[in-house]
Amino acid sequence: MDACILVCIDVDIHISCFFCLRCTGGPVPSPSLFNPSKIDTDNWAAAMKAFGAKYAVLVAKHNCGFTLWPSKVHFPESSFIYNYTVAESKSPSQDIVADFIKSCVKLGIKPGFYYSVVTNYYLNVKAGKVQHDLMPGMAVVTQDQYYQVVLTQLTELWSSYGSLGEVWFDGGYEKDLKDNLTALLYKLQPNATAFNGQGISNNSIRWIGNEAGNAPDPNWSTGESGAGDPDSDVWCPAESDTTLQGSDMWFYNRTAGIRSLNELINVYHQTVGHNSNLLLDFAPDKDGVIPDDQFERYSQFGEFIRKCYGKPLNATSGNKTTVTLMFSPPAAYVDRFVLQENQSLGQRVRSYTVTIVTRSHTRVVVNGTSIGHKKISLLARPMEHVTHLVFTAIESVGVPFISNFAAYACLSKGQI
Question: Does the pTM exceed 0.85?
Fold first, then answer.
């Protein structure tokens, strides 16, 4: 699957975590505390659509251990029943995962699931290992039983809700489960992109290394960590996860505030524009809906993307070392341009220039390195009377395949 290459926006919904901050050393929070009385997954999907999301990742089980679906895991020989699920809560919906899937499908959004393999507070698991310092409310399991819980719950998620676009392993996975996870993923969701899935999936994508919404430049599609490595033979594009709320707040907090539209625009250019997926957090409130101010900001962000990048001034492509983007008279006013490679053939360009030619002068405006899926270049100052732009590959592995070379004018004249 090429979702990590072609899709630029993701959505992360942390509804199960509004009491997760309590899972840090005290008694296990009661599932009865989970009571989203107005839960509305159609509302979530509408916000995603307004933002422009192409696929969405639901946090089906976070570190607390609480599941948003009625997991049926049990061990008759020890009388163990996994009873820390939405079925034991006061939620009006007894299978939020199923509702989420239906809402996504209705609006053409590809669903995916986050599942924390290495942490489960309810089962007293840290870093993939069962601990021995029990707190009230924790269930007692052996290490082997914990592994069975993980595999059974992932089987439930990956086999009961249709085809998934992405599976998320926050913090990676327990190495003792590597072979089993590899086989299970290949059997049930072979086409899903796997975040932190290096070693168990050929469709892995890597964490960019921060949660600020800032991918480095250059950022390569190969390599297994950080900014990647152009000399690596491991195909593993990057994903940048960040929050709408301030102060790196992933769970709904009415005092956190939300980031400004200008800040989100910068995030877009520094992630999507730097050859990375953007995964933007959605945090429904305790009632289970997207707050009005957040819904509005997602809509504003989506409107900017559509208005700015929906229709280029002109675009071209080419499987060669020099690609020229011409403008018909009169000459164009340009403030940015986008380059994209056809990465089905690999990321070939290693260094390049872009030259802008106007009626009065010729100027090299970019000396770049990584392009990958998408590189957005903003001009320091918009340029008028542009007759053409020239992309030139200085160094490449094989003949470059530029699938899109497009120019835009998002700022009006005088808005410099």
Answer: yes
